[in-house]
Specification:
182 residues; 3 strands; 49% helix; disordered N terminus; 7 helices
């Protein structure tokens, strides 16, 4: 499952994780999924885990981050613009969640609740005894939803694709305006 998620994310969203240790690569993958997940889906699965005494190591805060682009995807980097970003670091209530890990989240936008839910999920996924449960009940639905959205977006983009053929090409002529037999 993680390989499918990594392939999906690598193709469109992230740099390759092949040089990272497996645990770090897996965490990077699930953090990317949690950041892109709809807040409503996270709320549905994680609201009960956010009860109790959350230990806020870094309360949710919103700021700006500079986004860089590359000309043609491979050229030199340039500053594209700024995006709002919300981050938080917390430790869930150990008595309620049976989790002693620290969760971290960075999400685009200004939703403090989204960052909180993603950080709780990150902590739960790091706990070895809880990982399989949350992988099945949270990450798989998120992955399926995002994969479906990506397919829909690709289909919509493909439906609006325009093929630019010139009359010269359709007539079998070269780019210089001369015919094939000239």
């Amino acid at each position: 499952m993680v390989d499918v998620i990594k392939t999906m994310l690598h193709n469109d969203y992230t740099r390759s994780t092949k040089d990272l240790p497996p645990s770090l690569a897996a965490r990077q993958t699930w953090m990317a999924l949690l950041a892109r997940a709809p807040e409503e889906l996270l709320e549905k699965h994680l609201a009960s885990q956010c009860l109790g005494n959350l230990e806020w190591l870094r309360p949710a805060e919103t700021g700006l981050m500079m986004v860089q682009g590359r000309a043609g995807g491979t050229g030199q980097r340039f500053n594209l613009g700024e995006v709002s970003l919300t981050r938080c670091v917390l430790k869930p209530d150990a008595q309620l969640t049976r989790c002693k890990q620290v969760g971290v989240a960075y999400v685009m936008g200004g939703s403090h609740r989204h960052a909180q839910l993603a950080a709780v999920a990150d902590a739960l996924l790091q706990e070895p005894e809880l990982h399989d449960h949350w992988d099945q009940s949270l990450l798989r639905p998120i992955s399926q939803l995002l994969s479906g959205q990506m397919k829909d977006n690709n289909a919509q983009a493909q439906a609006t694709k325009v093929e630019f053929f010139t009359v010269a090409r359709e007539a079998g002529q070269g780019f210089d305006g001369e015919g094939e037999d000239a």
